[in-house]
Design goal:
By secondary structure, the protein is α+β, with helices and mostly antiparallel strands. It has one domain: 2-Layer Sandwich (Ribosomal Protein S5, domain 2), CATH 3.30.230. The chain has 2 helices and 6 strands, in the order E-E-E-E-E-H-E-H. It has a 6-stranded mixed beta sheet with strand order 1-2-3-6-4-5. Helix 1 runs parallel beside helix 2. The longest helix is centred in the last third of the chain and has 24 residues. The protein is elongated. The N and C termini lie far apart (about 40 Å). The relative contact order is 0.23. The mean pLDDT is about 95. InterPro entries: LpdD_chaperone-like. It holds the Pfam family PAC_bac. This is Amino acid decarboxylase. It comes from Companilactobacillus allii.
């Protein structure tokens, strides 16, 4: 499983990438309290969709900002579907740390894009029954 990291302003953001057939699962985590704050889904030819979970204080997590940056960078190269779970929390985050989070996500997106270009997704396509055939 590939793991990509970027560190700026005293915290690290990590993207763990798993393949499931031609589909990709990306976990974006980091800071002091990694979690699953949002889930974003996309394919090369569909719009991104996001679910935002409530945090401990009831507000909705905003980690989709990071996932959408990564998704935008890699979308054209996706061989199948992609799910990005994202949860980065830095205790008492500073304005500088907030400002660099976008560039950190961009960097992770570029690292994943490079990996996508080199990974061999060559595998047989699934076989389905036609309309005239059914399981025996």
């Amino acid at each position: 499983m590939p793991r990509f990291n970027i560190t700026k302003e005293n915290y690290t953001m990590t993207a763990n990438v798993s393949t499931i057939g031609k589909d990709i699962l990306i976990e974006v985590i980091g800071g002091d309290n990694p979690h699953i704050g949002t889930v974003t889904t996309l394919t090369s030819d569909t719009d991104m969709q996001t679910i935002r979970f409530p945090s401990h204080d009831g507000r909705l997590h905003k980690d989709d900002v990071l996932a959408k940056r990564i998704g935008t960078i890699i979308q054209s190269k996706l061989p199948g579907s992609c799910t990005i779970s994202s949860g980065v929390h830095v205790n008492h985050i500073s304005q500088k740390q907030i400002m660099v989070s976008s560039s950190m996500a961009n960097d992770l997106g570029k690292q994943i894009l490079s990996w996508l270009d080199s990974y061999d997704f060559d595998m047989p396509d699934p076989i389905y029954y036609t309309d005239s055939k059914n399981p025996v």
